């Protein structure tokens, strides 16, 4: 993967993570406490990973970045749910 592509991917991933965190922080108790946690995380990961313009080489090389996105989403869902207990 070229250096420019790597920088672009990291910048895009950082923006995507921020958007996901903002969405999670904006969720109310109803959605956080009624929706299945695993399904919510999966839905959010799919939503935000689909927004990344990854094709070919970038998609293959970015598996660790995509895992990082999934981890960020799960961690923030758990933290936000804890706000209601």
Q: Brief description of this entry?
A:
The chain has 85 residues and is mainly α. Helix content is 81%, strand content 0%. The protein is elongated.
Could you list some keywords that capture this structure?
5 helices, mainly alpha, elongated, 85 residues
SSE order, one letter for each helix or strand: HHHHH
Question: Assembly state here?
Answer: single chain
State the distance separating the first and last CA atoms.
Answer: 44 Å
Can you count the helices?
5
The helix/strand class is mainly alpha
Helicity, in percent?
over 70%
Task: Enumerate the spans where pLDDT stays under 50 for 5 or more consecutive residues.
Answer: none
Averaged pLDDT: 86
Radius of gyration: 14 Å
- Approximate strand percentage: under 5%
Which term fits the overall shape? elongated
Integer tally of domains: 1
| Secondary structure tally: strands | 0
Biggest sheet descriptor: none
Write up this protein.
The chain has 85 residues and is mainly α. It has one domain. It has five helices and no strands. The chain has helices at residues 3-25, 29-34, 37-50, 56-61, 63-82. It is elongated and about 45 Å long.
